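Board notes (copied after class):
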Amino acid sequence: MPDLLIRKADASDLPEIMEIEKASFTLPWSRGSFKYELMHKEALFKAAVSNGKILGYICARVIIDTVHILNLAVRPEIRRTGIGGALLQHALEEFKKSAQGVNFVILEVRESNTPAIRLYEKFGFNIMHKRRHYYQLPDEDAVVMGKDLRNAGENP
């Protein structure tokens, strides 16, 4: 998408972000959870925008010495068009530049979400282990994936 802009999310983006969130997850985050991330100094909360419309977002945060990707979603009708990858690449580059002493990134993904697992693998994430019964509605295990930023080659 040639006119894709990835920028810091703000409170005015929350209606569209909530729309994407509700379309993407069976137990969506609350508006309050997103507001908290907007205010948190260790958070990275970015929106992918094209022609004034939010197409996706990523929310990640440094927790002690590790980046935790908390949430990544793209509008269902435009998934697999590179937006999720652009958001992920942007976040990884931001943390490599700004988070001194942070060398590892971790995330959880539904075991059945093969497209997301493939995306993360494309960016050098490896499966570390599973968390049993991590997700609800439906009950499902999480695949925990991680990436060492120190040994990371350039992203795709």
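Comment from the instructor: Residues 5-148 form a domain with the Aminopeptidase fold (CATH 3.40.630.30). The radius of gyration is 15 Å.
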